[in-house]
Amino acid sequence: MHDQEVFQWLQTKIATTRQIRPEVVQLDSSLAEDLVPDSFELIELVCEIEKKFGFSVDFDEFAGIQSVRDVVQFIQQRSQAPH
After folding, report:
1. Nearest-angstrom CA–CA distance, 16 and 11
2. pLDDT (tens digit, 9 = 90+) per residue, 32-65?
3. Which residues share a beta bridge with 30?
4. Structural contact between residues 15 and 48, judged by C-beta atoms closer than 8 angstroms
């Protein structure tokens, strides 16, 4: 899956969950400050990523992620790594 496809999926998922317009979700948007301020919502997002992309996510590893761009890069790296 290309970066743009991952971004569009993530944009739609966050917008739907937060009930915001998709265009509010940008690559440089901060997850914690702008989009997913609640830890329960973050857990939901991680679960959705695991289901969609077929790999498990270590929350400690995911904790350092700051922006939507970081999430896209994380998904791309994990998708290409052997499981």
Report:
1. 8
2. 888 877 888 888 999 999 999 999 998 888 878 9
3. 67
4. no
* Whole-angstrom distance, CA of residue 32 vs CA of residue 65: 9
Say if residue 52 is exposed, middle or buried (CB neighbours under 10 Å; 0-12, 13-18, 19+).
middle
pLDDT value, residue 83:
54
**Residues in CB range of 53: below 8 A, 6 or more apart:** 1, 75, 78, 79
Distance CA 18, CA 21 (A): 9
User: How do residues 16-28 score in pLDDT, each as one tens digit?
Assistant: 988 999 999 999 9
- Supply the DSSP symbol for 67: B
